[in-house]
Write a structure and sequence with these properties.
The protein has 333 residues and is of the alpha/beta class. Helix content is 41%, strand content 20%. Strands 3-2-1-4-5 form a 5-stranded mixed sheet, sandwiched between helices. α4 packs across α10 (302-311), α5 runs parallel beside α7 (214-226) and α6 (182-191) crosses α8. The model is unreliable at 318-322 (pLDDT under 50). The structure holds 5'-O-[(R)-(carboxyoxy)(hydroxy)phosphoryl]adenosine and zinc ion (ZN).
Length: 333
């Protein structure tokens, strides 16, 4: 099935073409240069940039894949969650294209797209699996199963306050790192001493599957003024604490369900530190970790194609006007 995917949920304008789960092209036009001076995404700037770039990005994805609109079997666009102004640009562009060319259209949940990014490029769809999304806006753990009518997500817990990406970006900003701080924090953490500062593990031993990272952010800022530690050592200690929190929840859910594999996804899953430390700790508990290729951890449209491939065939095509609206607060799992 030849699929065109479009994602404009936040600050990257993305389009991709896949053949089932094989990527034929993937174009991600970053807006980092527009927002970095503000230390975060400015929604109005983001939607204006999507508006002027979407047509060129989709055309490039089609030409890189050596395909034309007539050859597409399905068009998929992110319906939500995300910034409403940004979503409306890509979603309506793709919907208009599908209606004009009489091609089936599917509205995708951006977060489910992140989960499926692990299946791109021939990694195989091992389901059921546990799922952990760690992105700039979300931290969520759940179970992914294959049912007769498509793939199903069972949400088991999420952060009560900051997402892991938010913790990283906010502490990085405090230390004067460029936005988004993730890759810089990761490099510092990989070179640092994770035993330099012992941060209390938030919610350790507490029943359930919630996370909390805002107290850890305050503890980091306090340690930076009170301890004689280099930033690299502080970040290594912080990321080690994050890894422990994530591993504890995954281990508990694996014990409860008997499912001993987990799909990591979201921008923070690109972290070399977390890949190494979470992967090793989970392996010693008999749990297999799968990480998407680094380029497909952060926002992209190939993962939106994967949503169409895995979800759409078992479902009726969206055909009522109400089902065709973008949804900034699309429900999760
Ligand atoms: O999934 P994503 O691209 O956007 C959202 O949907 O939120 O995730 C962005 C987040 C940011 O917080 C960014 O700092 C973080 O992913 N990030 C990383 C790395 N690359 C991006 N965090 C740690 N290590 C990285 N290499
Ligand atoms: Zn995302």
């Amino acid at each position: 099935m030849r699929i065109l995917g479009v994602d404009t949920s936040c600050d990257d304008t993305s389009a991709a073409v896949t053949d089932d789960l094989t990527i034929l092209s993937s174009v991600v036009l970053s807006q980092t240069e527009l927002h970095e001076g503000f230390g975060g995404v400015v929604p109005e700037e983001a939607s204006r940039a999507h508006f002027s770039r979407i047509d060129g990005v989709v055309r490039k994805a089609l030409s890189d894949a050596g395909t034309t609109i007539d050859e597409l079997d399905l068009i998929v666009a992110t319906r939500g969650p995300g910034l409403l102004g940004s979503l409306l640009v890509g979603y309506n562009y793709a919907r208009g294209l599908a209606l004009a060319a009489s091609i089936p259209f599917y509205g995708a949940n951006h977060l489910f797209g992140h989960v499926y990014s692990a299946f791109l490029g021939g990694a195989g769809e091992e389901l059921p699996s546990l799922s952990l999304i760690i992105s700039g806006g979300h931290t969520a753990i759940g179970i992914v199963t294959r049912e007769a009518d498509g793939v199903r997500h069972d949400f088991r817990g999420g952060t009560l306050d900051d997402a892991v990406g938010e913790l990283i970006d906010k502490t990085g900003r405090h230390c004067g790192l460029p936005w988004p701080a993730g890759p810089h924090v990761d490099n510092l953490a990989l070179a640092g001493n994770k035993k330099a500062v012992r941060f209390t593990r938030p919610l350790r031993g507490r029943a359930g599957y919630d996370f909390s990272f805002s107290g850890l952010k305050s503890a980091f800022l306090r340690a930076r003024t009170e301890e004689q530690a280099e930033d690299g050592d502080l970040f290594a200690s912080l990321m080690d604490c994050v890894a422990d929190c994530l591993v504890e929840r995954i281990r508990d859910l694996a014990d409860e369900t008997g499912i001993r594999r987990v799909l990591f996804s979201g921008g923070v899953a690109a972290s070399g530190f977390l890949r190494e430390h979470c992967g090793r700790k989970l392996l010693s508990a008999g749990i297999k970790s799968t990480f998407p290729q680094r380029a497909f951890c952060t926002d992209n449209a190939a993962m939106i194609c994967a949503c169409g491939y895995l979800e759409a065939p078992g479902r009726t095509w969206v055909d009522s006007a109400a089902d065709l609206e973008a949804d900034a607060f699309a429900s999760f799992f």
